[in-house]
């Protein structure tokens, strides 16, 4: 598979003006993204996602390390390299506010040197694909946030670059527009074989759209794995255990210490322990806690898990995470 983006050992530190303190935003991050791949870049607030995206699209310079776009080194062939990439950054939609939807698309299509006929055809196609027909003659200024976001992404697609970076594309959008955008992004990735990097806190978006995910925490990559594999891995480790009687306070304490990622729902009728095991054999240690005070297990079931839970487990239990 062709590598479209190569990130090699990048580092970024900032100097806080007021305190003169050095903040390490990105620490030795490396990854490749291939043609047609949709990559989710995730992490808690302040993890280093935006800094990474800004370095890839040339808005920030790494302190060290290298970034190649389509094989071109950003440091040495900056303009040529950046021609292969377009970005929609959160809170920064590159649109002309006093032009209409159609005029914006025509303007950016014109910038690419297309003929009048080509411009009209491409603009019509995007207006149809993004369901912007009703709004085509409205000024961007008066559009809702969701409509502006759709237009910003349509403009990014116009450039027909190999790679598109989308920073929080669905943040603050209503359910309907968020759904529409997801469908469009899916089609673009599949049919046009574009490489897309999405940074998001919206886990259903990641689960649905991304082939692969990179989770960044405190400036470093903690996971680089196919979404499908992560879901499978965590699914096989997630158990729901129904007990015949409640756990004593000392058993609950042991559970907390030995299985920090577990939850105990005490109830007279049906006490349940939900646990995510690091290794399947750890279940024997769990049973020892029950056995020590004669607690009988009624049933054990595998629980289904969504990407939100996977993300939380990884970020919470980062030091314990290891692929099987
Ligand atoms: N211009 C800057 N000056 C000083 N510190 C900065 C600057 N930009 C980012 N940082 C710091 O670098 C770290 C990483 O920030 P970054 O914005 O890359 O994280 P993020 O993962 O995108 O977070 P969020 O999800 O909140 O947007 C944070 O500690 C942040 O405060």
Quick structural summary:
With 324 residues, this protein is an alpha/beta fold. It has helices at 49-56, 78-82, 101-111, 116-129, 145-158, 175-192, 203-209, 227-237, 249-258, 283-291, 307-316, and strands at residues 3-15, 22-34, 38-42, 64-69, 72-73, 85-88, 163-167, 195-199, 212-217, 220-226, 238-243, 263-265, 272-276, 297-302. Helix 3 packs across helix 4 and helix 3 (101-111) packs parallel to helix 5.
Features:
324 residues; alpha/beta; Rossmann fold; Alpha-Beta Plaits; 2 domains; four-stranded antiparallel sheet; 11 helices; 36% helix; elongated; binds adenosine-5'-triphosphate
Structure description:
This protein has about 325 residues and is α/β, with parallel strands linked by helices. It folds into two domains: about 5-225, P-loop containing nucleotide triphosphate hydrolases (Rossmann fold), CATH 3.40.50; about 230-320, Malonyl-CoA ACP transacylase, ACP-binding (Alpha-Beta Plaits, 2-Layer Sandwich). It is built from eleven helices and 14 strands. The strands form three sheets. Strands 6-7-8-3-9-10 form a six-stranded mixed β-sheet, with helices on both faces. Strands 2-1-4-5 form a four-stranded antiparallel β-sheet. A four-stranded antiparallel β-sheet has the order 12-13-11-14. β12 and β13 form a beta hairpin. α3 runs parallel beside α5 and α9 packs antiparallel against α10. The chain starts with a strand and ends in an 8-residue tail after the last helix. It binds adenosine-5'-triphosphate. Adenosine-5'-triphosphate binds near residues 14, 48 and 49. Adenosine-5'-triphosphate binds next to β2 and α1. Belongs to the ABC transporter superfamily. Keywords: ATP-binding, Nucleotide-binding, Transport. This is ABC-2 type transport system ATP-binding protein.
């Amino acid at each position: 598979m062709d590598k479209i983006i190569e990130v090699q050992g990048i580092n970024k530190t900032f100097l806080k003006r007021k305190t003169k303190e050095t903040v390490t935003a990105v620490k030795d991050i490396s990854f490749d993204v291939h043609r047609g791949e949709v990559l989710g870049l995730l992490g808690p607030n302040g993890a280093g996602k935006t800094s990474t995206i800004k370095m890839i699209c040339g808005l920030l310079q790494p302190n060290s390390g290298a970034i190649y776009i389509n094989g071109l080194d950003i440091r040495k062939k900056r303009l040529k390299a950046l021609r292969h990439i377009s970005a929609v950054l959160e809170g920064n939609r590159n649109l002309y506010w006093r032009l209409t939807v159609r005029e914006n698309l025509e303007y950016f299509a014109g910038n690419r040197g297309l003929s009048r006929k080509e411009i009209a055809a491409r603009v019509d196609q995007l207006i149809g694909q993004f369901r912007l027909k009703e709004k085509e003659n409205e000024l961007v200024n008066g559009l809702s946030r969701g409509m502006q976001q759709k237009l910003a992404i349509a403009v990014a697609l116009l450039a027909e670059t190999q790679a598109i970076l989308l920073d929080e594309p669905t943040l603050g959008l209503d359910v309907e527009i968020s759904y529409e955008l997801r469908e469009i992004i899916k089609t673009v990735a599949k049919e046009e074989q574009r490489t897309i990097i999405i940074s998001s806190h919206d886990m259903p978006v990641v689960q649905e759209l991304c082939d692969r995910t990179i989770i960044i925490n405190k400036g470093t990559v903690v996971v680089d794995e196919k979404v499908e594999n992560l879901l499978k891995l965590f699914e096989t480790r997630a158990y729901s255990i129904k007990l015949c009687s409640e756990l004593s306070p000392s058993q609950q304490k042991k559970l907390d210490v030995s299985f920090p990622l577990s939850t105990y729902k005490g109830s007279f009728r049906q006490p349940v322990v939900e646990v995510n095991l690091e290794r399947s054999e750890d279940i024997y240690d769990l049973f020892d806690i029950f056995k020590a005070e004669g607690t009988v297990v009624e049933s054990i079931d595998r629980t289904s898990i969504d990407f939100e839970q996977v993300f939380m487990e990884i970020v919470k239990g980062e030091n314990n995470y290891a692929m099987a």
